[in-house]
Protein: 2-amino-4-hydroxy-6-hydroxymethyldihydropteridine diphosphokinase
Organism: Psychrobacter halodurans
Amino acid sequence: MFTTYEKHKGLAGVNLAGLEIHTPEQLQTHAVTAVVLALGSNYHADYYLPDARGKLATFGRMQLSTSFQNPDFTATQEQPKPDYTNQCAYLSLDTAMSLQELQQAFKLIESDCHRQRLTEGQTSIKKVTMDIDILLIQTGLNKNSLSNKSISAKIVEYSEQWIIMADRYPFKAHETAGVEELISKSGLIG
């Protein structure tokens, strides 16, 4: 675990078009101070979305977008599939964690919501109780430099950077709408 992070600026001033895009593999050990998540469920969403949101809220302060009901983009007339309920969440972490730790924690929440990936792959119609995908991460980078007055005194500058997760980009329409709503609400965050 990383140290507690005090300063939260939310998504204020974030311009999606200007953000860097990196693969999760490039960022596994980076200290993450906040995330934007895509939440989705096509099976008992009225139960599993609030359950997952409650579990996520234990990590820090959270702001939610409007929830959207969307058709499964893999559905066809020959093979209809249940609609998804999707929502984006901004989560400012009380304690910075590595991306790898966050991914493991979110998989555990999916599992606690009875997500069964093995049986999903064996059926033509997947029942997804909870899907949590990381769209954006905010990394916190410590920049240490020695003070001019004393060699032992260090000045620590905290630099924040939002990064788009390449495995989720380009975002789906409902993800873009959710992220943009969270950015517009950023004055309410933090």
